[in-house]
């Protein structure tokens, strides 16, 4: 049988639950905070990607087409 902890006597259960349970609770809290942070960073990257890259590139294409059209009319 596989287990995470092995106890020689039942009296060691209190320390196992209080010490290791507390440490596992803290580690789980850090994992939850990390997930919130990671998701917030991902959303902010997507939020800033659209105005700076997608809109600017389409604006440059639009302005380039206008300049080409304007240059064709001057000939």
From TrEMBL:
For whether the record's keyword set contains Metal-binding, the answer is: yes
The membrane-topology field of this record reads: Multi-pass membrane protein
Q: What are the residue boundaries of the P-type ATPase C-terminal domain, all occurrences included?
A: 1-53
Q: Where located?
A: Membrane
Q: Name one GO molecular function term.
A: metal ion binding
The UniProt transmembrane annotation reads: 12-34, 46-67
Sorted alphabetically, the Gene Ontology cellular component annotations on this record are: plasma membrane
Keywords in UniProt for this one?
Magnesium, Membrane, Metal-binding, Transmembrane, Transmembrane helix
A biological process term (GO) from this entry? phospholipid translocation
Which is an annotated Pfam family here? PhoLip_ATPase_C
Q: Which PANTHER family match?
A: PHOSPHOLIPID-TRANSPORTING ATPASE 1, PROBABLE PHOSPHOLIPID-TRANSPORTING ATPASE
Q: What is this protein called?
A: P-type ATPase C-terminal domain-containing protein
Q: Which organism is it from?
A: Gossypium lobatum
């Amino acid at each position: 049988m596989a287990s995470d902890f092995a106890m020689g006597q039942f009296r060691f259960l209190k320390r196992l639950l209080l010490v290791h349970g507390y440490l596992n609770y803290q580690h789980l809290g850090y994992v939850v905070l990390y997930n919130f942070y990671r998701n917030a960073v991902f959303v902010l990257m997507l939020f800033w990607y659209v105005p700076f890259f997608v809109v600017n590139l389409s604006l440059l294409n639009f302005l380039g087409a206008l300049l080409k059209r304007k240059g064709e009319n001057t000939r």
